[in-house]
């Protein structure tokens, strides 16, 4: 019984339901990021992300794909054009998409293991405990 035979299906989407996704696969590198872009785009002190391979991923809401905004050339962030919710990050040519953990219908099933850009984190929240993968991200 290999790990690939135990893949789970996750669903998620934006606040208004226009953008929806379904993904079957294993969560990759769940993390929170306190970089300048994650703070400005979310309006919050950090954004929580989790990756999934694109091969198991599909957009299945009435709005289809999210609207894209490139924060750097080739670095695309997807959001709902109706409600503005941040949904995902997808680099040109990448094999995996990162969705915001809070866009998952059940976000309790994914726990961030790393805090990226901790030097840019706000001083009034504790940092995410660093897990085993901290040195690999
Ligand atoms: Zn929406
Ligand atoms: Zn970031």
From TrEMBL:
PANTHER family: CENP-V_GFA DOMAIN-CONTAINING PROTEIN-RELATED, GFA DOMAIN-CONTAINING PROTEIN. It comes from the Bacteria. Belongs to the Gfa family. Keywords: Lyase, Metal-binding, Zinc. It comes from Actinacidiphila acididurans. InterPro entries: CENP-V/GFA (IPR006913), Mss4-like_sf (IPR011057). This is GFA family protein. Residues 10-120 form the CENP-V/GFA domain. The keyword Lyase applies. The keyword Lyase applies.
